[in-house]
UniProtKB/TrEMBL annotation:
This is Uncharacterized protein. The keyword Glycoprotein does not apply. SMART domains: SANT. It comes from Daucus carota subsp. sativus (Carrot). InterPro entries: Homeodomain-like_sf (IPR009057), Myb_dom (IPR017930), Plant_SW-associated_TFs (IPR051953), SANT/Myb (IPR001005). GO terms for molecular function: DNA binding.
Length: 312
DNA sequence: AACCGGGCCAACCGCGAGTTG
DNA sequence: GCAACTCGCGGTTGGCCCGGT
């Protein structure tokens, strides 16, 4: 945590505007939230200015992404998420944004903190414990993947992924590959919901040659979909209703419920920021079923919820 | 009850890449 | 081509919380 904002004010380089630093007050959160709901994402410097915040745009962006974003999950990481983080980190390293992109509702900062504070320590402990003679594989998710022991399937999986990554070594070649005969498919699809039973194995299937629409190739050989209002798009749609916005999001351990008067311009009902509800824009990714049949999904490529484009 | 130390995590910092004029 | 600006990312900091003593 930082010092309270009013203790760390300093003059901005431009315009002698005092910029606040440190913790965000509920009033500041409210201002930013209301502004984002009304106007959506734009230039962060303008957002900070127009929202009446004495913050730099960078600070506003961080606050929005890491805390105020409606589609953020709250609470501890699930077992599936934990396993996926460990797995992705084994391949991607400290590319937290890339890892976060595969965990809907989680931020890179959150994952980074989780890794540094929890997983790292447990991995270390796990490595130590696996060196002891009487140790066997436990139900610990760490041991399922790492802990010094990687299953044959995992190893093959990683080889596959690394091959995919190495196949396209630069962003320029990546861009060229978009229109080339073949392209690398994202081996790490995002988790749909942590309540689902998830097979963390990537989709090992071939995609016929076709032009790619509705997405771009990322820096690691993956296919980044254009997903409006979800983890790839942190903006929110503008709201044009009248009344009040009742916004729910927890502040640390307590579940706060903010009733915001939005200048007679917004009315949001049943606007729940809880863990089970995602932002409207992400609903195109939801399957509507509590239990996904991953085998059948994998068997039928065109039915995959990850595919946001048509395969010809 | 007071103190201490480690964990957690929000937020800052610096840097590189991309964009704009 | 260049400088200024903006954005996004990863590393780091440091205050709060909480369990142990």
């Amino acid at each position: 945590m930082r010092k309270p904002a009013d203790q760390t004010e300093k003059a901005s380089n431009k315009g002698n505007v005092k910029l606040r630093k440190g913790l965000w007050s509920p009033e500041e959160d409210e201002k930013l939230m209301v502004y984002m709901l009304r106007n959506g994402q734009g230039c962060w410097t303008d957002i900070a200015k127009n929202a009446g915040l004495q913050r730099c745009g960078k600070s506003c962006r961080l606050r929005w992404i890491n805390y105020l974003r409606p589609d953020l999950k709250r609470g501890s990481f699930s077992l599936q998420e934990e396993q996926l983080i460990i797995h992705l980190h084994s391949i991607l390293g400290n590319r937290w944004s890339q890892i976060a992109a595969r965990l809907p509702g989680r931020t890179d900062n959150e994952i980074k903190n989780f890794w540094n504070s929890t997983i790292k320590k447990r991995l270390k402990d796990s490595v130590i414990s696996t060196t002891s003679p009487n140790n066997s594989i436990s139900s610990d998710p760490i041991n399922g993947i790492t802990g010094g022991m990687i299953s044959f399937e995992e190893h093959e999986l990683m080889n596959f992924c690394m091959d995919s990554i190495s196949a396209t070594t630069s962003s320029s070649s990546m861009q060229n590959s978009i229109t080339s005969a073949t392209y690398q498919f994202d081996p790490f699809p995002p988790l749909q919901d942590n309540s689902h039973e998830i097979n963390i194995a990537p989709r090992l299937f071939n995609v016929p040659n076709h032009s790619v629409e509705g997405g771009i190739l990322d820096d690691y050989g993956g296919f980044e979909q254009y997903v409006t209002g979800f983890e790839n798009d942190l903006s929110v749609p503008s709201l044009e209703n009248d009344g009040n916005a009742e916004l729910m999001f927890d502040k640390r351990s307590s579940n706060g419920k903010y009733l915001i008067d939005v200048d007679q311009s917004i009315k949001v009902e049943d606007f729940d920021f809880g863990t089970n509800n995602h932002w409207q824009g992400g609903q195109n990714l939801k399957t509507g079923s509590d239990q996904l049949d991953w085998e059948s999904l994998l068997a039928n490529v065109s039915f995959s919820p990850y595919l946001d484009f048509q395969i010809e």
